[in-house]
Amino acid sequence: TMLGVITTDALVNSDVWRKMVQISVNRSFNQITVDGDTSTNDTVIALASGLSGSISISNINCHEAMQLQACLDAVMQGLAKSIAWDGEGATCLIEVTVTGAESEAKAAKIARSVASSSLVKAAVYGRDPNWGRIAAAAGYAGIPFHQNDLRIMLGDILLMDNGQPLSFDRSAASNYLRKAGEIHGTVGIYISVGDGPGSGQAWGCDLSYDYVKINAEYTT
Amino acid sequence: VAASSSSSMSEASNYIPAAPIFLPEGPWQQIPGGVTAAKGFKAAGIYGGLRAKGEKPDLALVTCDVDATAAGAFTTNMVAAAPVLYCKNALDISKTARAVLINAGQANAATGDAGYQDVLESAGALAMLLKLKPEEVLIESTGIIGQRIKKGALLNSLPKLVNSLSPSIEGAGSAAVAITTTDLVSKSVAVESQVGGTNIKVGGMAKGSGMIHPNMA
């Protein structure tokens, strides 16, 4: 279960605030995954006191609304990433960035499909630069794209381009994963699926033996 | 009393380490404080005897000095917990809220009418203490599915929780610890930026480590 409470002293009317909060949730908490199980209790409550003295925001398309939306996105993404970083048994945070999709929503869906893949998560834990699993998870996300446009990078190492695997320095790629695991750092997976305007991100963590151990014993 | 409650707040807020927070780049700077950074908010986290094991703080409260514009996003899981159903109803009734009460230890999910009544009773008791309308109190619960909240312990702890409220960094930190379950770290962050030329603050706290694949709407 994830829970969140967000507060601000900006002055914003109820309709706009409720839309903003949902947009931010879609760009943050709805883009994280640890185990693919959606809880019975997930909740985010967001309160705006209006005590900052800022002007009242009553239109979601005005400049001030965009400024507040950007701050809200940042706070929720910061918190969401820390949840994925603290996934049960995790040794590293996985950040999947997808570009070139037709829309933000489609890019986000591909990103979370990859971040959710147990095989990708296990490969990261095994320090295995497994481009095939990344490609497969992108491919079953339910979002059409030309497979010959698929490009995959692990950190700054190009694994796949134009839908074809490349020869790459395997030990360098594996070391990239190992180093991230040693410092509980971040593994970056960068995927391009074409030249569309849409980009999105998702966050997850690697799948370790500890996850099974923790959840075999935490009984309901 | 104030001195002892602030030392216990600081103790509570350090019960587990704080998570590294990966804030995206942008026209803001990170400031301390979490949910209490923004003007008008207070928070507290205490041990209320709700957890099955250990004495980590397990009851948190965030309040606003004024009617705050309120929004919520909730799990779309069909087996929605009692606090989720309650909050949806409360936000349908009221556009504003003044308090969020969070318990860790029992999810109060799959607990039927009795579980829902527990939520109503908790919200009502806190509303009376804070002199609010019940629908201005929102509730979040996390923990073991199928278990009702330890209502007696919760209700008995409310006066101490309310007395512990503070606009301080420790208040926010203790609340961020109190909402955790299997988390190894607490999650809390705040930023300061400008909206229309006026300084504003946005802050927040979160918990989560297992059963994580949110689809909130």
Structural class based on helices, strands and sheet pairing of chain B: alpha+beta
Mean pLDDT of chain A: 97
Helical element count of chain A?
A: 7
Describe the main β-sheet of chain A briefly.
6 strands, mixed
- Would you identify the regions of chain A where 5 or more consecutive residues have pLDDT less than 50? none
Shape label of chain B: globular
Distance between the termini of chain B: 42 Å
Give the N-to-C terminal Cα separation of chain A: 13 Å
Output the radius of gyration of chain A: 19 Å
Order of SSEs of chain B, N→C? Answer: HEEEHEHEHHEE
* Strand residue content of chain A: 15-25%
Count of DSSP E strands of chain A? 8
Decide which structural class fits the backbone of chain A. Answer: alpha/beta
Portion of residues in helices of chain A?
A: 40-55%
Order of helices and strands of chain A: EHEHEHHHEEEHEEH
Overall average pLDDT of chain B: 95
Largest interface, counted by CB within 8 Å of the partner chain's CB: A-B, 77 and 89 residues
Low-pLDDT sequence parts of chain B: none
Short description:
With 220 residues, chain A is an alpha/beta fold. Chain A has 7 helices and 8 strands. Chain A is globular, with a radius of gyration of 19 Å.
What does this entry look like structurally?
The complex is a heterodimer of chains A (220) and B (217). In chain A, 40% of the residues lie in helices and 22% in strands. Chain A has 220 residues and is α/β, with parallel strands linked by helices. In chain A, the strands form 2 sheets. In chain A, strands 6-5-4-7-3-8 form a 6-stranded mixed β-sheet. Chain A has a two-stranded parallel ribbon with strand order 1-2. In chain A, a hairpin with a 2-residue loop joins strand 4 and strand 5. The radius of gyration of chain A is 19 Å and the shape is globular. The two termini of chain A are 13 Å apart. Chain B has 217 residues and is α+β, with helices and mostly antiparallel strands. The relative contact order of chain B is 0.26. In chain B, a hairpin with a 2-residue loop joins strand 6 and strand 7. At the A-B interface, strand 1, helix 1, strand 2, helix 2 and helix 7 of A face strand 3, helix 2, strand 4, strand 5 and strand 6 of B. Strand 1 of chain A pairs antiparallel with strand 7 of chain B, so a sheet runs across the interface.
